[in-house]
Design brief:
Keywords: DNA-binding, Transcription, Transcription regulation
Order of helices and strands: EEHHEHEHEEH
Family: Belongs to the bHLH protein family.
Pfam families: HLH (PF00010)
Distance between the termini: 102 Å
Radius of gyration: 47 Å
Strand content: 15-25%
Protein name: BHLH transcription factor
Organism: Dracaena cambodiana
Shape: elongated
Strand order of the largest sheet: 3-4-6-5
Helix content: 40-55%
CATH superfamily of the largest domain: ACT domain
C-alpha cells in the first residue's frame, strides 16, 4: 500500500503528501494527569495524618493542664503560663514542708541498736518530788512485731520505771522506740552508783528484747527450709 496521497491544491499539478503513519508518538497527557492526581492524594493523606497527630497532642496537653488545675487550688481561671508558674511555686512549697518534717523525724536503724542514758527533764510539781525522781531516756531499734510494745512495757514495769513519753517510728518493717522513763528514789535508788546500775539493767532488758528478732528470724528461716526440703522430696518421688 502506498504511503503517499495526492492533493490538488491551487497549484497546477498534483502535490504528493506523506500519509500519516499509524506508529505515531504516544500521548503523555493521561500519564501526567495520573501522576499529578497520585501526588495530590499523598499530600492530602500526609496533611490529614499531621492534623490528627496535632489534635491528639493538644488533647494530651489540655488533659495534663486539667489535672494540674485539680491539684493546685484557685487556678480555674488562670491561663497556661500563670498555671505553670503557680504549679512550680506549689511544688517548691511542698518540698520545703517535706524537708522540714523530715528533719524532725528519726529513721529506724537497719541493725538492732539500744541506747540508755539518764536525763534531766524539768522540775516536778514540788521540790520534794523533784528531789525524789530520776529520768532515763531509752531507745531501741529492731524489727517490728506484734508483741514488741507489750514486751517493752513489761520490762519497764519489772524495773519499777514509769513511761512518761514514747516516740515510735516505723519504716519498712523496722521500728525505733524512744522512751522517757521515770523512777522514784527509794532506799538509795537513784543515786549515782545505783542509777548507773539501773541504766545497765534497762540496756540488758532492751538488748534481750531486740535479740528475740534474730531468734525468731532464724527459727522462721529454719522452718521454711524444712518445708522446702519436704516439698522437693515429695515432688521428686
Amino acid at each position: 500500500m502506498s504511503s503517499t496521497a495526492c492533493y490538488r491544491g491551487p497549484y497546477k499539478g498534483p502535490m504528493i503528501l506523506p500519509r500519516p503513519s499509524s506508529l505515531g508518538v504516544r500521548s503523555l497527557g493521561p500519564v501526567s494527569s495520573s501522576s499529578s492526581s497520585s501526588s495530590a492524594t499523598g499530600r492530602s493523606q500526609a496533611l490529614k495524618v499531621h492534623s490528627q497527630a496535632e489534635k491528639r497532642r493538644r488533647e494530651r496537653i489540655n488533659a495534663h493542664l486539667s489535672t494540674l488545675r485539680r491539684m493546685v487550688p484557685d487556678t480555674n481561671k488562670m491561663d497556661k503560663a500563670a498555671l505553670l508558674g503557680k504549679v512550680i511555686d506549689h511544688v517548691k512549697d511542698l518540698k520545703r514542708k517535706a524537708s522540714s518534717i523530715g528533719n524532725g523525724l528519726s529513721i529506724p536503724a537497719e541493725s538492732n541498736e539500744v541506747t540508755v542514758e539518764s536525763k534531766e527533764f524539768g522540775a516536778a510539781t514540788t521540790t520534794s518530788d523533784a528531789n525524789n525522781l530520776y529520768y532515763i531516756k531509752a531507745s531501741i531499734s529492731c524489727d517490728d512485731r506484734p508483741d514488741l510494745f507489750a514486751s517493752l512495757m513489761k520490762a519497764f514495769h519489772g524495773l519499777r520505771l514509769r513511761t512518761i513519753r514514747a516516740d515510735i517510728t516505723s519504716l519498712g518493717g523496722r521500728m525505733q522506740n524512744v522512751f522517757v522513763l521515770c523512777g522514784r528514789r527509794e532506799n538509795g535508788n537513784g543515786s549515782g552508783a545505783n542509777l548507773n546500775s539501773l541504766e545497765e539493767s534497762v540496756k540488758d532488758a532492751l538488748a534481750r528484747i531486740a535479740s528475740l528478732d534474730v531468734v525468731a528470724m532464724d527459727a522462721s528461716s529454719t522452718k521454711r527450709q524444712r518445708l522446702l526440703q519436704s516439698y522437693y522430696s515429695c515432688a521428686s518421688v
